[in-house]
Amino acid sequence: MTLAIKEWFFEDFEKGEQIVTKGRTVTESDISMSVAISGHSQPIFIDEEFAKTTSFGTRIAPGELTLGLVAGLLTRLGILENQVGLLEIKCKFPNALKANDTVHAETDILDTRLCSKKDRGIVTFNDRLLNQRNEIVLESHRVAMFLCRNMP
Fold first, then answer.
1. CB neighbour list of residue 14: distance below 8 Å, 6 or more residues apart
2. Which SS3 state, helix, strand or coil, does residue 66 take?
3. Which of 10, 36, 44, 73 has a Cα-to-Cα distance from 59 of 20 to 30 A?
4. Residue 117 has pLDDT above 90, yes or no
């Protein structure tokens, strides 16, 4: 369930809660811009004729674009407004992300704990990015630090 909060602070995250975002369609331009910015120009990302010879049958998106989409979708909900640090992230990419896929993110809050300074806290997430067929294209375990609303 997604709460209508303008900007999230540490206190707004509840262990066991699930957050679901709205969708977004990935375009050819998204893939091309990601490759141009990162310089990650493997043939599977930039050469349609080469990509047709692979098991994917078409160009796919780089993993860093896939990961960035989760952050973008969560930002739309105000969830990352008060994040002050990404402490850890582990990713798996079980299915390819392709142009014209419409994706949404689902995030489970696994744990929350207040830091010793008491002005921030640590939140542990399990994120999934799913396409229109509900196939997982990214699964990540993420640990991040957030500001507290009620600072001491």
1. 109, 112
2. helix
3. 73
4. no
